[in-house]
Design a protein that fits this description.
Helices cover 75% and strands 0% of the residues. It is mainly α and 437 residues long.
């Protein structure tokens, strides 16, 4: 990827009003998005496995943990504060430092009698800090990189965000399972959370040294309240608002609906309709093989958009996002015992999701463009989290009512809204495509 920010024949004067790309993005984009993804996977994914291993029911798991998505849904409410006070760079480092004691508190909560209640409070605190970190990190990404670099790096940033899933659903889940076998489930989870907290302290120190100081990364001069009012007004004045809302809410509706039930399905006994896998086996299948394939799909998706633009790849990505959900229909109906086959099928579904999700993320960047793009991007990703909650809070009840076989057929039916709203995506031919030679 060339370091020269100017297109052939351009002079610095010709691009003086444009955003210049930050130096050495390899030194900060991967680690930034790894630590952006890690608290999200702790709150939304590891919480499911933790409660399942501690004998909480499927319907209670899906219902309780789905509410965590609302923390990310409402982050737009305080995004003008992040935009108007201090710099995005400082917010990023501060939130990484704050997540460490929050994880320590979550660790302590597991020893309390009403551990479900107190651990949920802990997960909400982690979620709030994580959502605030997202606002600052995404804002810094937008401010520090030029438009074509944002497209070029969308696959890389998504890749390292998903590598946090590998580390979380794979490494941390396997670690918790192994420690649980040695010391008991609660102690296993406590030691795993303690190790994660230490990682955030190290990450804050690292980013305090290496994050870029973008020229545009300055607080807005207007009062925070006025900035919030202006950002909201301009957001709702977008000419394509209704189209954008429909796309954000329904583009990946089926996948959102399914997400909370995959791990319980893999862990439940065959008599309950599941595959009877251990916590460690799930960590390998879903959190390692699955997420590595997710990463590969995300990288190829970002490169495809960078090479030819979003419009060229939109429909292949929509198909890749939705059709592989049939994998879980097969697994639920035939309940194969072959772990290699299960891992391979999970890899296929995950690769398709990673490839298709690239289109969704690029659309969010397109939708947020404008004067308040940091805040508008927070609005857009907040709506994305709302869509996750709306699909998930009742998914456990549907699964209990239909059984896993009927549930995954229902998920396939829910892909139809995703195909419908994909037809509404309207971007220019060259949006996301590399500029210059």
């Amino acid at each position: 990827m060339p370091d020269n920010p100017f297109a052939p024949g351009q002079t610095p004067e010709q691009v003086s009003s444009e955003r210049l790309p930050a130096a050495r993005p390899w030194s900060w984009v991967p680690s930034l998005y790894f630590l952006e993804g890690l608290p999200y996977v702790v709150a939304n994914n590891l919480s499911v496995a933790m409660y399942k291993s501690l004998s909480v029911s499927n319907s209670q798991i899906a219902f309780l943990t789905s509410w965590l998505s609302l923390v990310w849904a409402f982050k737009a409410l305080w995004s003008p504060l992040v935009d108007g006070v201090s710099t995005k760079r400082r917010w990023v480092v501060a939130m990484q430092l704050a997540i460490a004691p929050a994880l320590f508190g979550l660790m302590v909560s597991l020893q309390l009698p009403s551990f479900v209640l107190y651990s949920m409070i802990g997960f909400f605190v982690v979620g709030f800090l994580s959502a605030t970190h997202d606002i600052a990190a995404d804002g810094l990404y937008i401010l520090a990189l030029s438009d074509d670099q944002q497209a070029a790096w969308v696959g890389i940033r998504s890749t390292f965000w998903r590598l946090a899933l590998v580390f979380g659903e794979g490494g941390l889940l396997v670690l918790a399972g192994w420690l649980g076998e040695q010391h008991g489930a609660i102690v296993g989870w406590q030691l795993t959370l303690l190790a994660t907290a230490a990682l955030f302290v190290a990450g804050a120190v690292f980013h305090g040294l290496l994050l870029p100081r973008a020229p545009d990364d300055t607080p807005r001069e207007q009062p925070v309240q006025q900035a919030w009012v202006d950002a909201v007004r301009s957001f709702f004045a977008k000419p394509d608002l209704l189209r954008g809302l429909a796309i954000i809410l329904f583009f990946r509706f089926a996948e959102n609906h399914m997400a909370k039930l995959v791990v319980p399905f893999l862990m439940d006994d065959a008599d309950a309709g599941g595959l009877g896998m251990s916590l460690t086996e799930v960590g390998v299948a879903k959190g390692t093989v699955g997420v590595l394939c997710l990463v590969a799909g995300g990288i190829l998706g970002g490169l495809a958009i960078y090479a030819h633009g979003l419009r060229r790849w939109l429909w292949p990505m929509v198909v890749a996002l939705n059709v592989p959900n049939l994998v879980y229909v097969y697994l639920a109906w035939f309940q194969p015992a072959d772990r290699v086959l299960i891992n391979a099928l999970i890899g296929v579904e995950s690769f398709g999701y990673g490839f298709g999700f690239s289109a969704y993320m690029m659309y969010l960047i397109h939708f947020a463009r404008g004067e308040y793009e940091t805040t508008h991007y927070a609005f857009a990703t907040g709506l994305m989290a709302t869509a996750v909650w709306a699909a998930q809070f009742w998914s456990g009840w549907v699964s209990d009512s239909l059984g896993y076989q009927g549930f995954f057929l229902w998920v396939v039916a829910l892909t139809l809204p995703g195909f419908a709203v994909a037809a509404l995506v309207d971007v220019s031919e060259d949006f996301g495509k590399r500029t210059g030679s």
